[in-house]
Amino acid sequence: KNVFMILLSVIVLGLVSGFIVFETTKASVTLVLDGEKKPVETHADTIEELLQEEQIKPTTHDYVSHDLTAELTSGEVIEWKPAVQVTLTINGENKKVWTTRDTVDELLEDENVKVSEHDQLSASRDDKLKEDMNITVDEAFQMTVNDGGKQTNVWTTSTTVAGFLEQQNIQLGELDRVEPEKDSNVKENSEIKVIRVEKVTDVVEEANNK
User: Fold this and answer.
1) I need a surface site. Which of 42, 74, 127, 180 has the fewest CB within 10 A?
2) Cβ-contact 90, 140 below 8 angstroms
3) Is 136 left (phi over 0), alpha (psi -120 to 50) or beta?
4) What is the pTM of this model?
5) With bands split at pLDDT 50, 70 and 90, how would you rate the model's confidence at 7?
6) DSSP secondary structure code for residue 46 in this structure
7) Alpha carbon separation from 174 to 95, 99, 178, 179, 195 (Å, rounded)
């Protein structure tokens, strides 16, 4: 019985010692998962093993602050941010983009897209990016409009005469006409003429025959 108790004590002591060693040899790191901080105690040897423990499988488009094969050391801060795919449409041409940026403005900067004050942007610059988001940029160009003899240079993003008139809030009267016609296309340096027609009624007095 004494031998059994001794053996049991040795086993228990070994287990306790092993548990203590196991716990004290863990690395204490901070994971930043898509902006959220999470303290982690781990026995992982590499960044990749740590992420696997957290059931995270980074894609080639995701952002990881460290090389996946890098050795893990206590006190490190490891950041992972998943990429989202958005559609960027510039002057009617679509482009699928993977990004880990936060806002529309940051995406445009990455893609070297400059938006002037006359251009049309479908979203606010500080809008948060999200999966399958559509962002449209229509670049403005300058053209000339002659409205009833008054000529001005204006900026527009419309590519048709009808769209231009609507965008510039130019109303046509019943007899007015426009050159070129409403369904015509326009481009930079085009000229649109709005011809105003007034209806004049002549009053003819006939002399009374006596």
Assistant:
1) 74
2) no
3) beta
4) 0.71
5) low
6) B
7) 43, 51, 12, 15, 11
